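Data availability (excerpt). The following record was deposited with the supplementary files.
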Amino acid sequence: MRALIIAIDGPSGAGKGTVSRVLAAELHYRHIDSGAMYRAVAWKVLADGLALDDEPAIARLAAEARLDIGDGAIRIDGHDVTRAIRTPEIDRAAAAVARLPRVRAVLVERQRQLGADGGIVMEGRDIGTVVFPRADVKIYLDASPDERARRRAHDPAHAGGGPLAVAEVATALEARDRADQTRAASPLMAAADAVPIDTTSMRVEDVVREVLEIVQRQLEADGGREE
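Predicted structure:
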């Protein structure tokens, strides 16, 4: 069977990470969190003392860095930053880095290389619109602002080791949404041919089941042709 490219986009807290990981495991595909690449670069920018608006230097860093994304771990230049990149400070730094067109160009190319052979579930904010505009399956996950804030506030991976106030998270998410949707380079939006899924009142397993049905229909439409 042909190995598909599956793009899952959406804002923070919509469920992209959990759904993408479970989906990839079900399909025996590789899972790539494109946002972790921006976070890792942002971590290195701060660690190296670079200014967050120094586009040439950050683009060079992104091009030269050794990035290892997979198996639940994120490493950059030999540093395991899996937990370190899931903090409010890195949230803000990653949003700033992601607004830089030259940095996005570098990381988009790296993402395309990772998924070139298919058999991949890649999550992000511009996967179906920019990274893989011809992806076999495009999904856009969203949820109400209140639900997204509640999920993020109670997610240990993003809470820096402790619970966060929902109101505080809601304010941060609103700012991140505004930054993502208004940036000049690859703004957050649903691809015209993406299947939208509102996950507000859905269980993860139900979202995964719905996406798996979409994937199965695509495989059937392919006629099971070989790669």
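Summary of structural features: Residues 5-222 form a domain with the Rossmann fold fold (CATH 3.40.50.300).
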